[in-house]
Amino acid sequence: MRVMILRHAMPLTGGRLAGRTEVDADCSDRTALAAMAARVVGAEVIASPARRCIQTADAMGLSPVRVDPALWEQDYGAWEGQSYADLPDLGPLPLEALAAHRPPGGESFRDMAARVRPVLEGLERDTLLIAHAGTVRAGLAMVVGDAALSFSVAPLSLTILRRAGPEWAVEAVNLTWP
């Protein structure tokens, strides 16, 4: 069984952190959207309820989709909506400390991964999730642990996980068009 996790198209954040903040997606690259849609034919489609994820699904011709609120991006609490330049500098942190860090009023990466994991483990057939960079990393964390935080996840990129019985493996990470 394969789980394909597609990060939504480029979010139009205006240079601000938009974990749970609703922003639009730039779905203007119709060629890339069509190419991604061709890669995921036949899979069940589940999306985060975020507007940018639903817009990506619509632009790929995959709507209507089932929506699962557990697929939302990490909640950055007080950091939501801040410009990237104004976010606090945490300094060098070991991956374990970074994964456990909670922004004020938000959730840690581990909290988010614990929310996403039951969705992934409950899937029974090839499935496409249209979600966020954090969701991709949460899936990768099932195989590589906190090292998942070291992966870059491009907009409109596809990551594929494979499950055989209870075991998960990474098939591909960050596939983009072309």
Q: How far from one another are the termini?
A: 25 Å
Order of helices and strands: EHEHEHHEHEE
Structural class: alpha/beta
Number of helices: 5
By CATH, the topology is Rossmann fold
Unreliable stretches (pLDDT < 50, length at least 5) are none
In the CATH hierarchy, what is the superfamily? Answer: Phosphoglycerate mutase-like
Given the C-alpha coordinates, what overall shape results?
Answer: globular
Work out the number of β strands: 6
CATH class: Alpha Beta
Classify the helix fraction into a percent range. Answer: 25-40%
Main β-sheet: number of strands, strand sense, barrel status? 6 strands, mixed
Taken as a percent bin, the fraction of beta residues is 15-25%
Radius of gyration: 16 Å
User: What is the architecture at the second tier of CATH?
Assistant: 3-Layer(aba) Sandwich
- In the sheet with the most strands, the strands line up as 3-2-4-1-5-6
Question: What is the average per-residue confidence, as pLDDT, rounded to a whole number?
Answer: 97
